[in-house]
Amino acid sequence: MPPKDFRVFQRRRRRPWGVLTLAMLSGIAMMRNGVDFADGPPQPAAAARPVARPVTPPDGATEGLEPLPFAPASRIRIPAIQVAAPIMDVGLDPDGWVAAPPPQDANLAGWYQNGISPGQRGTAVVVGHVDNAQGPAVFYGLGSLEKGQHIEVERYDGRIAVFEIYGLEVYAKDNFPGVQVYADTGEPELRVITCGGGYTRARGYDGNVVVYARMVGSR
User: Fold this and answer.
1) pLDDT digits (tens, 9 = 90+) for 106-157
2) I need a labelling partner for 15 at 20 to 30 A (CA). Which of 9, 89, 151, 188 fits?
């Protein structure tokens, strides 16, 4: 069943990305707390990049593919790292950060509800914790993903948007490249984000792992 405020989502589905993009330009990290494990979560690079390098989507990946209409996200599946998690709606917290799901629920992701829905033309955003006080959380393995692997997002209209990964980066949270990460490429895209980079008890994680993916099909 769709959430009770489904019609509210429909009314605001065309809201521009301006508010989120401005927030991200401040060097935002999705989640600010971490837990000290022996090895830490897998990382796509040895350290958070101080300068963002270009991430180029593949040519022709969406040729002839029709974007999906708006519908809230309900579940995310990433077979390569055994993720199968429900999605809750999140907005911005009082400090202008994208709000994370409740940390006590380790297997829960959040979809930024005031932006693009997965499968729509534009860039949809899903966030989740890398860990919590009990151990690894939903996106602990995100940094081990590889180009060509798939991410599936179920929607409340019964459709499933299938995305193919074409980029994986870790960025310093003090220099988060919001314009690049959240840019509208004119195609249905997905960004999946969690904490990453180095970790200290004093500051938590110093970066964010960002997965770039483009829709390659739906069912």
Assistant:
1) 999 999 988 899 999 999 999 999 998 889 999 999 999 999 999 999 999 9
2) 151
- Burial of 111 from C-beta contacts in 10 A (0-12 / 13-18 / 19+): buried
User: What DSSP character marks residue 186?
Assistant: S
Q: How many helices (H) and strands (E) does the chain have?
A: 3, 10
Strand segments, DSSP code E, in the chain are 73-78, 83-90, 109-112, 122-128, 131-132, 135-136, 150-155, 160-172, 188-200, 204-218
Q: Which residues have C-beta within 8 Å of that of residue 169, sequence separation ≥ 6?
A: 44, 45, 49, 52, 53, 55, 209, 210, 212
- pTM over cut 0.85: no
Given the DSSP bridges, would you call strands 204-218 and 160-172 parallel, antiparallel or unpaired?
A: antiparallel
